[in-house]
Design goal:
- It is a single chain.
- By secondary structure, the chain is an all-alpha fold.
């Protein structure tokens, strides 16, 4: 019973994440020290 609950929770969270990702699109900047937007602006300059 507990394994089924954990599996259902993970599946629901994954489905929700995919839905939000599809609606909002991929985020421009990834969280963390590495910022791809800075490297892109540096490459343009």
């Amino acid at each position: 019973m507990r394994k089924r609950l954990v599996a259902w929770t993970i599946l629901t969270c994954a489905l929700l994440a995919v839905a939000v990702w599809g609606l909002l699109g991929a985020p421009d900047t990834a969280p963390g020290p590495h910022l791809p937007s800075r490297s892109q602006t540096a490459a343009v300059r």
